[in-house]
Design goal:
heterodimer, A: 595 residues, alpha/beta, Ubiquitin-like (UB roll), Rossmann fold, five-stranded mixed beta sheet, four-stranded parallel beta sheet, 18 strands, B: 393 residues, 16% strand
Chain lengths: 595, 393
């Protein structure tokens, strides 16, 4: 690769051609402050915070948007640079409702830390906020959008456009009226927004935040009449530590359980349990569809089947590919299966009136808040999941309670509905549902384990945009002989821009899959919209490593071997896809508009 | 009454129809020779930025790529300029011939006129001229077609990269540079984008030769220039003058005898007070020309009855509206400048707040993403520094 020689802050450096000044400075461990720049997104060069001086040039250059050139002499901290940078930060503060002590992002706001760094003081520009007619959109159960905090960096717009290819958020108007808006300036709740929360993960200020339910949970915990049941998603335990002072990639399952008990939850259970259950239901659904298509030649059977765990994906299909809704597995997501069981099976078992059960879930996700709020999700006769917290909200509660998280002793989940297999654990990573489903489905059909070393179906793992794996089914059991020799074609993708690519190739008939796993967020749930901020590829890789490490260490690695799941079918559900399952564990979808 | 110091020229608006002849002549010449002719002529971009036209064509001709474009920037939006409208009304064929020669040089088969939305009344007549032009193209055997793209009224779309974005169907927002249009312009293909007047001048150069053009004007500012003269003048209108004149002579010719200041180059240009008229040249900044101010053509004359506070206020209101809003210094800076001078005038901020605003304007100049934000400081600083009393009292 061609190298370019340049000098940054009087230090000579040789870097690869095509890098920008920001990246070149990074190699010298020189930090140039940024706001609109984000590693996951294309370069915008909007905020002008990262300007640097090129010796001999009058105008300053945006470090993020300027490629390195031979012989460049760059100053990142000259007087001219500092003055300009301070002026830019000062301008941003002047159009931002700087009510920091009342702000949800207080202490986690990038504008706040920059203004602290550059000592933005009293002697400043005119406060523009009172002159503007800023609005707050708090109609969505997932995301709150407060225009008065927005600094127009367009990270959210680029996230929605390039990462997710949705375009729910867009730039409207120009000049002083320029703002981030939606189709016809409708609330987020009414437009094509999938509630994935990726914009929330990347917003540098408090303009886009999750709708938090922390007070509601505390109120429920302190209500003596209420029995609090909590479930935790697989991706929470490998990221929670990041908000509590630990490095990415730490598995904190035991401490997490201990913290939940300290917070006052009566029963600390695991979404992983219903992840295993999901595999049984969804796996059997896939086999049923395959039988319908291959044996019965039933034209009403829809293949490829897609997964249904990701509520962002569900809403995306409802908006963008409604003609493919019959292809989406009818199995509810693990969160909602759990909710439906808590107020039926669990309630009966512990002899508590479901009326008095408050079912809380801790999720890496903002779309789960919307999902719990869907009218379909009341199979138990009550709202199946009452309150959904993100990993971030949960961490905030731990801090509020004064718990020294790192010092906690590991504890075990309660039983019943607290046991899980390694297959459930990997639900948190892109490819995990596919791998878990294959581990089980292959064994149902052949009576043997999937032909991969140590059950690790590596082709579906990792951060590649679209992953494909074909498994040839051989030596089937008598009931499944129709699958003998069939090559099961699977596809795994994550982030909705990639999902669009896959769906378009399915639509055009270019790709012939039987089963597709889609997660709305990059890397799967581990990169979810409710996960700790910041996020980038490196952090997501660390989280992914932790997930597969947890799987490898589990005594049970296959969903159908989870003894609690086996018992659940014996005692309550009777059989996969049976009446009880149909009533509690499966759902239906709604066609929505494309805007 | 007005004097006639300055040489009035009639190169651009002269009725000549030698397109076919010019094209036949240039078709035979190697591209290098055509580019050299332009470079020797000293022609610089007449939109105001003054980039050497020959060099621009050369870079685009050398750029790799099978698909290239020629675009005529007719989004004449700078306050106080209306000369491109006149050129497109009277001699549109000259502009098209310029585009055709450029297409031949760089190897483009498609060209566009980006027509300012408010000039839509020119559409029908332009389309007729383009039809004739296409007949001529067939005749001379040049595979080149021109279409009109109508703008929608945003000032920022006159900025070349915002213009490309607009043509591609996106929001009219300037891009990061580099890459420049000659490398990656419209649809990210090598593109020559020239002002209407620049292209019309190439017609004269190819007809009369580069020496004739070069003989006019002064060092660094060669040829003639079309000016849009407005404001406090008894004879507003469009004038083609020899480039590189002193502002003093200009005011003697066009002023009403009571000229207090001239705004050279529109809202994004500079304001020159009376005491500097004789020291100011109109033309591109060069080593030998001293204090010279470029202009896209806008010359606004103000007499002593005008409040320069009002003038500046008007410009700033314009920028506050017309900033695309993308980058911080321009979006917020323009608002702060406007509110800032209002606050000083009302006594809500001390008069030395103007110094903070001047340094803000300077920061906007060095940090803004495109020419719009970078040039707000031109009018702001030149008016505030020269007419400080009028800002305060």
């Amino acid at each position: 690769m061609n190298k370019v020689n340049l000098v940054i802050d009087h230090i000579e450096v040789s870097v690869a051609q095509g890098l920008n000044i920001l990246e070149a400075a990074k190699q010298l461990k020189i930090r140039i402050p940024t706001l609109c720049y984000h590693e996951d997104l294309c370069v915008a060069g909007n905020c002008r915070v990262c300007v640097v001086e090129q010796v001999g040039s009058d105008r300053l250059l945006p470090a993020c948007a300027t490629p390195v050139a031979e012989g460049m002499e760059i100053l990142t901290n000259s007087l001219k640079v500092r003055n300009a940078r301070k002026s830019v930060i000062d301008l941003l503060v002047s159009e931002h409702r700087a009510e920091c002590t009342r702000c949800y992002k207080n202490g986690e706001c990038e504008l706040q830390s920059l203004s602290s760094e550059y000592l933005i003081g009293e002697d400043t520009y005119i406060d523009l906020v009172p002159l503007k007619n800023y609005s707050i959109d708090y109609f969505s159960p997932s995301i709150i959008k407060d225009d008065s905090k927005c600094i127009r960096c367009q990270r959210c717009v680029r996230t929605c456009d390039y990462l997710q290819d949705i375009g729910a958020l867009t730039v409207a108007h120009k000049g002083k009226d320029m703002k981030i808006s939606s189709f016809f300036e409708k609330p987020m709740y009414e437009v094509v927004c999938t509630n994935c929360g990726q914009c929330v993960n990347r917003c540098p200020t408090g303009a886009l935040i999750e709708r938090n339910y922390i007070d509601e949970v505390w109120t429920a915990i302190n209500d003596p009449k209420k029995h609090l049941v909590v479930q935790t998603a697989p991706a929470v335990r490998i990221a929670l530590g990041e908000v509590l002072g630990m490095k990415p990639g730490n598995i904190v399952t035991g401490k997490m359980v201990a913290a939940l008990r300290r917070l006052g939850f009566d029963s600390v259970l695991d979404t992983d349990f219903t992840a295993d259950l999901t595999i049984i239901e969804e796996g059997n659904e896939l086999l049923k569809r395959l039988k319908g298509a291959l044996v019965d030649n039933n034209p009403d059977v829809n293949l490829p089947m897609t997964t249904s765990c990701s509520p962002g994906w569900i809403k995306y299909v409802e908006h963008m590919y409604p003609e493919y809704l019959p292809n989406v597995s009818t199995a509810k997501s693990p969160q909602q299966m759990f909710g439906a069981l808590v107020k039926t099976y669990y309630a009966k078992k512990v002899k508590i009136d479901p009326e008095n059960i408050v079912s809380v879930s801790i999720m890496p996700c903002t779309a789960k808040k919307y999902e719990a709020n869907r009218p379909e999700m009341q199979a138990s006769g009550y709202r199946d999941v009452d309150l959904v917290l993100t990993t971030r909200e949960f961490a905030r509660m731990i801090k509020q309670a004064g718990i020294n998280f790192e010092a906690l002793e590991n504890e075990e989940f309660d039983s019943f509905m607290g046991t899980s297999s390694g297959a459930a654990v990997i639900f948190g990573a892109s490819g995990g549902v596919m791998e878990a489903a294959l581990r089980t489905a292959y064994e149902i059909v052949t009576g043997k384990e999937v032909p991969f070393d140590g059950l690790n179906i590596t082709p579906v793992r990792g951060m590649e945009e679209v992953k494909e794996a074909t498994i040839k089914i051989e030596n089937t059991l008598p009931d499944w002989s129709f699958l003998e020799g069939v090559e099961l074609k699977t596809c795994v993708t994550h982030s909705l821009a990639n999902a669009k690519k896959v769906m378009d190739s399915v639509k055009k008939g270019e790709a012939q899959y039987h089963f597709i796993e889609v997660m709305a967020c990059p890397g799967g749930c581990l990169g979810g919209g409710g996960q700790p901020i910041p996020t980038n590829l490196e952090i997501r890789r660390e989280r992914s490593k932790a997930i597969y490490q947890e799987d490898a260490g589990k005594p049970i690695r296959k969903s159908h071997e989870n003894p609690e799941v086996v018992k659940l079918y014996d005692e309550f559900l009777k059989e996969p896809l049976g009446n009880k399952s149909h009533e509690l564990l499966h759902t239906s979808y709604v066609r929505r508009n494309r805007y | 009454m007005s004097k006639k110091n300055l040489k009035r020229l009639d190169l651009i608006f002269k009725n000549e129809y030698d397109g076919e002849h010019i094209l036949m002549k240039t078709m035979e010449k190697p591209n290098q020779e055509i580019v050299n002719e332009l470079i020797i002529s000293g022609l610089k971009g007449r939109g105001g930025a003054g980039y050497p036209t020959g060099l621009k064509w050369k870079l685009a001709s050398e750029a790799a790529g099978d698909i290239k474009y020629v675009i005529c920037n007719a989004d004449e939006g700078e306050p106080g300029t209306f000369k491109d409208r006149e050129i497109l009304t009277q001699v549109p064929h000259k502009v098209l011939i310029g585009m055709a020669v450029c297409a031949k040089v760089i190897g483009a088969h498609e060209g566009f006129i980006y027509l300012r939305g408010e000039y839509k009344f020119l559409m029908d007549s332009l389309l007729e001229v383009i039809d004739d032009f296409h007949v001529l193209m067939n005749k001379v055997g040049l595979d080149f077609r021109v279409k009109i793209f109508k703008g929608s009224g945003a000032y920022i779309c006159g900025e070349e990269s915002a213009l490309f974005e607009s043509m591609e169907g996106h929001r009219g927002e300037p891009r990061n540079k580099p890459p420049y249009p000659t490398q990656a312009g419209y649809r990210n293909m090598p593109t020559v984008i020239n002002n209407v007047e620049t292209l019309a001048h190439t017609y004269s150069i190819f007809k009369y030769g580069s020496e004739k053009f070069r003989d006019l004007g002064v060092q660094d500012s060669r040829g003639s220039k079309v000016f849009s003269v407005s404001g406090d003048t008894p004879i507003p209108g469009i004038y083609e003058l020899e480039f590189g004149m002193s502002l003093q002579k200009f005011v003697e010719d066009f002023g009403d005898g009571d000229s207090k200041a001239v705004q050279v180059g529109g809202a994004s240009g500079f304001c020159v007070p009376r005491k500097r008229f004789d020291k100011t040249m109109i033309g591109y900044q060069g080593k030998l020309t001293g204090v010279s101010l470029p202009t896209g053509g806008s010359m606004m004359i103000f007499n002593s009855s005008r409040s320069m506070y009002n003038v500046l206020h008007n410009y700033l209101e314009f920028f506050v509206e017309e900033s695309c809003g993308q980058c911080t210094p321009c979006r917020v800076g323009t608002q702060q400048l406007l509110l800032g001078i209002e606050a000083v005038k009302k006594g809500q901020r001390p008069s030395d707040y103007l110094d903070k605003l001047l340094s803000l304007a300077e920061n906007m100049r060095v940090t803004s993403k495109c020419g719009l934000g970078q040039s707000v400081a031109n009018s702001f600083s030149s008016i505030v520094e020269n007419f400080k009393e009028e800002m305060i009292y």
